[in-house]
Every structure is written in structure tokens, then in C-alpha cells.
Amino acid sequence: MADQSDYDKLSKEERDEKDKADRQREAEEQAALPYSWKQQLGEVDLIVPVPKGTRARDLNVAIKRKSLQVGLKGKEAILDGELCREIKVEDSAWTLEDQESVMIHLEKIDQQKWWENVLTHHPKINTTKIVPENSKLSDLDGETRGMVEKMMFDNQQKQMGKPTSDEMKKMEALERFKAAHPEMDFSQAKIS
């Protein structure tokens, strides 16, 4: 896989072309898995197809902190391996839908990270290209919303080479201090 600096050297058209090719390859790799999955920052949901008419008692499902196993009793597992990241076992669960698919809900321990894959031996997705579903700022509680808005503002400021909100606060405090102490020389002052 090419590193980020190679990617940065590409023109916009070449980047779009590469992103499109990567998305296509990723989609094909994910479609070849014996399950489908989607995630939000706090959780991962899987759908594992099983033969029609399967009953819950026919299934062997083991959800552990760092591993997952799903299969039919007496047969080779449909999926079996180490999870990409740790989960909260007590908040994770599985159900059998319409006797043809196992729905698995995994609650992430680290709710600030996107998973690259479900099982470590399966193909990875590019998590930097994830656009969160229904991530409206209005859905967040006041404190979280304020934090996200500040991060977005600071990120925008950095990209434009302007000071972040914290740097602006420090500069304002220094200006107030200067105004209160006109007798002091601030020509050599550095903000840290």
C-alpha cells in the first residue's frame, strides 16, 4: 500500500481515481466475507446468513472480549477469530432473525475509534474515509456538542494557518495583561 506522502503528490483527479479504485476493491473484499457489517463509533452490527430453517439451538455463537465465533453445531465455523478491538461482552448480544440470519450487536470498549475490520484476519477498510451515519450535531448533548464544535473550529483554523480557540484565549489574556501593565516591555514575550 502506498504511503500518505505518495498520495499527497497526486493531482485531485488522480486522487479521485485512486479513491474510487480503493472503494471498489474494498467493496468487493467486504462483499466476499461470509457476513455483512456496519458500525458507528460506539458499536458494530453484523448480519451472518445461515441456512433457512436454522433454529437458535442449532447455532454455536461465542462472543468474547477479544474474539467472535459463529457457526452451526457440528460444522466448521462460519466465522472464528480475533476481533479488531475489544468489546463489552455484557452489552453485546445476538439474535436469530427469520431462521435465516444471525444478527450480532457488539458494543465497543473504545467508542472513539473506527474499526478497520471485524476479525483481524479479514480485509481492512480505510477508516479515514468513513462518513458517520446520522451524525448531526443537534443529536449530541450540550457538552459533547460544544466539544465537537470547538474541535471542528480548531481544525478549520489550523488548516487556514490561523490560531486555535485556545491560542486565541491566550492572546486575549496577554492583551488584557499588557493593557493593565503599560510599564512592562512585552516585545520579547513568547506565548506557550
TrEMBL record:
GO molecular function: unfolded protein binding
Function: Required for nuclear movement. May interact between microtubules and nuclei and/or may be involved in the generation of force used to move nuclei during interphase.
Cellular location(s): Cytoplasm
Keyword Cytoplasm applies: yes
Annotated keywords: Cytoplasm
DNA damage as UniProt keyword: no
PANTHER family, per the entry: NUCLEAR MIGRATION PROTEIN NUDC, NUCLEAR MOVEMENT PROTEIN NUDC
Annotated Basic and acidic residues bias: 1-28
GO cellular component: cytoplasm
InterPro entries: CS_dom, HSP20-like_chaperone, NudC_fam
Source species of the chain: Rickenella mellea
One GO biological process term: protein folding
Region (Disordered), start-end ranges: 1-33
Protein name in the entry: Nuclear movement protein nudC
Domain called CS: residue spans: 30-119
A Pfam entry, by short name: CS
